[in-house]
């Protein structure tokens, strides 16, 4: 009786972020997958295995199907890399990506993040409020917690020392990961992928071009 040799596969990385909504999303994902391959990893994007979605009419059923398919993709991945860029010109990141961070963190998987916007989160909030509403932040009455300022509605401007909400960037850091910043999106992404490669068991050495 012969024993079949074990086959090893490259670690699978879920490519999360608002990339799916951007112009030329397919081309962006191809470039990201090439970066993953060069690092000895397999990039998995939300478009993978979802060709049937393009033929469906927009609506609640289609949206729920996409959520289920994305969840299934995350279940089959070993780690995730997340774009923390502000979404729709606001201060906060894409909320769907934030959910995915929490989902994969709860599975105990390795995470990394990247962004082209390294401004501290409170500064993002201050500049958004000024631009969108014409008001300014004010000092809180009281001390302690995650922020010393509040907005014109009295909401604490939290997550000082981070580029995004502490529950999103924080979960990445609690997994042992980091958030990489560069003005070029793909450069920031490649930095995040390299940080994952160094931590993931079974990842191959990067390929030299």
UniProtKB/TrEMBL annotation:
<dbReference type="Pfam" id="PF05014">
    <property type="entry name" value="Nuc_deoxyrib_tr"/>
</dbReference>
<dbReference type="InterPro" id="IPR007710">
    <property type="entry name" value="Nucleoside_deoxyribTrfase"/>
</dbReference>
<dbReference type="InterPro" id="IPR051239">
    <property type="entry name" value="2'-dNMP_N-hydrolase"/>
</dbReference>
<protein>
    <submittedName>
        <fullName>Nucleoside 2-deoxyribosyltransferase</fullName>
    </submittedName>
</protein>
């Amino acid at each position: 009786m012969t024993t079949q040799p074990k086959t090893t596969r490259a670690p699978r990385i879920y490519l999360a972020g608002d990339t799916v909504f951007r112009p030329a999303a397919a081309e962006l994902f191809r470039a990201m997958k090439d970066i993953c391959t060069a690092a000895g990893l397999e990039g998995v994007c939300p478009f993978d295995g979802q060709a049937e979605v393009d033929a469906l009419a927009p609506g609640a059923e289609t949206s729920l199907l996409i959520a289920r398919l994305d969840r299934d993709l995350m279940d089959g991945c070993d780690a995730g890399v997340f774009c923390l860029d502000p979404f729709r010109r606001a201060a906060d990141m894409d909320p769907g990506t934030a959910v995915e961070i929490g989902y994969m963190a709860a599975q105990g998987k390795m995470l990394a993040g990247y962004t082209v916007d390294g401004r501290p989160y409170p500064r993002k909030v201050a500049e958004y409020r000024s631009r969108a509403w014409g008001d300014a932040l004010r000092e809180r009455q009281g001390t302690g917690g995650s922020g010393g300022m509040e907005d014109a509605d009295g909401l604490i401007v939290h997550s000082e020392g981070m580029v995004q909400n502490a529950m999103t960037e924080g979960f990445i850091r609690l997994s042992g990961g980091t958030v990489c910043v560069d003005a070029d999106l793909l450069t920031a992404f490649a930095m995040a992928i390299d940080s994952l490669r160094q931590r993931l068991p079974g990842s191959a050495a990067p390929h030299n071009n």
